[in-house]
Amino acid sequence: MKIFKVGDSQKAICEHCRSLENATFKLRDVPFSDGSGVVKNVLVGICDKCDQVCLLPHQSTPAVKKQLDAQRKPIESRLPAHLVDILNLATYELGGSTDFVPSLMKYYIHALASDEKAAQKIVNLLQSELAQGKADKRLSLKGRRILEELDALKAISQIENTTDLIKGIILKINDDILVNKRSKRMKELKNIVAAVA
């Protein structure tokens, strides 16, 4: 593996210019293409023609991975066993396995963060008997956007405690999938299960 230094240059295909151009290695702050974060002060090849990043040398991969891993910091919650059972039953009802539980939770977090009216009703679900119980199981969720969506959902729902919010989301899943079997939501989720199975 060749190690590049600041100021080294190499030919590279520039996506912006759509041609083979000379690229000079420089230290830059580089945003992720989806806008979810920035890798600061990383060595990249910059197109001499358009001044855009066109090359990521192998030696910069650990810096990019570190930033991605930081964005995927897990959300941990301790829950009563029956709430985890609800998630497992819901995924089974949708035609999936327990492996689909994190995806189901992320789907609901995203959907509720985008639906203020539904998000405000979560707090009412925490009044039910199902919200109570000894927290003896752990639920861990990872994702690049999960933290910011949970924060948005906290603001909308007025539920400050992450574990209480997770409980409310699980009870919403219970209401939608196991109790009322909302056909539109279930059809959409069954399509997702089929696509990822």
Describe the structure.
By secondary structure, the protein is α+β, with helices and mostly antiparallel strands. The chain is built from eight helices and six strands; from the N terminus they run ββββαβααααβααα. The protein has helices at residues 61-71, 81-93, 101-113, 116-120, 122-125, 146-157, 162-179, 183-196; strands at residues 9-14, 19-31, 38-47, 53-55, 75-80, 135-141. The strands form two sheets. It has a four-stranded antiparallel sheet with strand order 1-2-3-4, with helices on one face. A hairpin with a 6-residue loop joins β2 (19-31) and β3. α2 crosses α7 and α3 packs across α6. The longest helix is centred in the C-terminal third of the chain and has 18 residues, at 162-179. It is elongated and about 65 Å long.
